[in-house]
């Protein structure tokens, strides 16, 4: 299965609580942190919800 790299580029402070929980569920804690996740529809949906705070590399 292919993987994607997700990088947090904006702070979740002051954002909608649901979006903050999504960032945490993706495993992101600090700005600039990069995590590698499997490319699944569930992960893609989470990314789409908070894409304004992320940078995604395939």
TrEMBL record:
One Pfam family in the UniProt entry: Ribosomal_L30
Any one cellular-component term (Gene Ontology): ribosome
Protein name: Large ribosomal subunit protein uL30
All residue ranges annotated as the Large ribosomal subunit protein uL30-like ferredoxin-like fold domain in the record: 4-53
Lineage, top ranks: Bacteria, Bacillati, Bacillota, Tissierellia, Tissierellales
Keyword Ribonucleoprotein: yes
Top-rank lineage group of the source organism: Bacteria
Sorted UniProt keywords: Ribonucleoprotein, Ribosomal protein
Subunit structure: Part of the 50S ribosomal subunit.
InterPro entries with a match to the protein in the record: Ribo_uL30_ferredoxin-like_sf, Ribosomal_uL30_bac-type, Ribosomal_uL30_ferredoxin-like
Family of this protein: Belongs to the universal ribosomal protein uL30 family.
Keyword Ribosomal protein attached: yes
